[in-house]
Amino acid sequence: MAAYQAGNEAAFAELFDRYAGAIYGFLVRRLGDPALAEDLYQEVFLRLHRARPSYDPGRPFRTWLFSIAHNLLSDALRSRRRTPSLTQFQEEFGGAATSGDKAPNAVNLGATIASDGASPEAALVTRELGEALNRALRSLPPDEVTVLILARLEGLPYDEIGHVIGRSAAATKQLAYRALKRVRAELVASGHGGEP
Amino acid sequence: MKRSSCDEHRAWLVDALGGPPQPQGDPTLAAEAAACPECRAVAGEIQSSWELLRLVRPLEPPPALRERTRGAVLALIAEDRAVASRRGWSSASQVPLAVGSGLGAAAATLFLLGGLIWGSHLPEGHLFFCAAIFTGLLVGAFAWIYSATTVSGVHLDVAARVGVLALTITVAATTTCPELHVLWWWDRSVPGRFFTTLLGAGGSSLVFGFTYGLIPGFLAALFGGRLLAARWLANGLVAAGVVFLLATPVIYLQSAPFTSGVIASWLAGTAAGTLCGVFGALRVRARVARAGALG
Fold it and tell me: Which CATH class is domain A140-191?
């Protein structure tokens, strides 16, 4: 990061390669709107570039980057005056659970459920499981989804996630706890209560 | 199991989610959890949800988006580098150069015009005040020159160059004047006496000031005014402003024996003369350029 702050293009390219996918996944999963996610995706890195002189080397870069993405996301959602949806998860796992047709610009994320080499029956089960997971995640408040994404998919520790969403580590753990309970309850209600 | 122990166990469960929750990792909590059906159920639910989320794979941005984003930031880095090179005067190497040039020019002007070489009769405070003003103005002017600063088509560097050139002409002319105070010399000259009789002391100093600004402004803009033709009004005003600003300390330096009214007339005349001189030179340059003699 120090080299990038000094204007080193190769240093930026390395950071970009490392976090390009993580930021994209975070935005798409939080927004559920691929078009808006793509707009914000570029803006995250532009904002990172503009803010780089203020980066504190004492803080983990990854946390700082997700903070930028989270703040940008919050601003965008506030400006749109709508509650963030998780329809992308619906599209991700098959798309027909509640609204029928898949959005034409939706990113097909069906393959993001690990089902490589599975039989057709197993693939169907996985698909149904994905739809149930979609519904479960859609039922979560935004901060709980953020905590789950950052903790489970990105592997951030709770104190760092707390920095991202502006809460204490204890409050973040509470969010994670509630989110996991809700996910489980939703899966049970939809008949997917067994072990994955 | 006590409620407080259940709460502790649940907090610990979430903590343990960095990897698979393993209640047996803490013997006390594990024993209490084993004895509490509710805690056992919660542990199972949390762990099950956690494991299920592991099935979701990372996403990658579309290649076009990825390249567009990377390219946008790399373009900004390149632009930052270009801007930084244009702002070279702020780098360590050019700031001392501008300060040194400003100090040197200010000292030379003061020694020549303040009579420090020939024996000054000016009050010390007067000299120091003038030195401070001169140094500040000249450091700024040299900073613009060295940085090649241009803002929205207005060439601040060229304006500063014209100003320094005009100051050099003024200092050279004033130094060759037989009197230490040029206005004294003017008042005793034939035209000076004529205008004093005609317009009074204030009017005479106004006419003198006009010439005082006109000739250096004209010559400096004529020979140093390259690039001022585009946006000629803005460029001409800025160049005339710099010429006038650099002339005012010279006037102030020589103002000690005169009344404030005379000095005000001198300044007003200089301002008008500078404007006429600079814009006159730009007009001449434009005509010559149209004739193909200048680029």
Answer: mainly alpha
Q: Which two tokens mark A26?
A: 């975070």
Q: Which amino acid makes up residue A35?
A: A
CA distance B276 to B238: 13
Residues of B (27-86) whose Cβ lies below 8 Å from A: 42, 45-46, 48-62, 65-66, 68-70, 72-74, 76-78, 80-81, 84
In a mutational test of the A interface, the residue from B65, B73, B74, B79 whose CB has the highest number of chain A CBs within 10 Å is B73
**Cβ partners under 8 Å of residue B268, min gap 6:** B206, B209
Residue B269 has pLDDT above 90, yes or no: yes
* CA B259, B260, B261, B262 torsion-angle sign: positive
The region that residue B292 occupies, defined by phi over 0 for left and psi between -120 and 50 for alpha, beta otherwise, is left
Q: Do B58 and A107 touch (CB under 8 A)?
A: no
Q: Which of B42, B53, B68 sits opposite A148 (nearest CB)?
A: B53
Q: Is A113 helix (H, G, I), strand (E, B) or coil?
A: strand
* CB-closest option in B17, B59, B69 to A151: B17
Nearest to B17 by CA among B53, B47, B56: B47
> Which tokens belong to A41?
């995706």
ipTM of the complex: 0.75
The whole-angstrom distance between B13's CA and the closest CA on chain A is 8
pLDDT digits (tens, 9 = 90+) for B184-220: 888 888 888 899 888 888 888 899 999 999 999 999 9
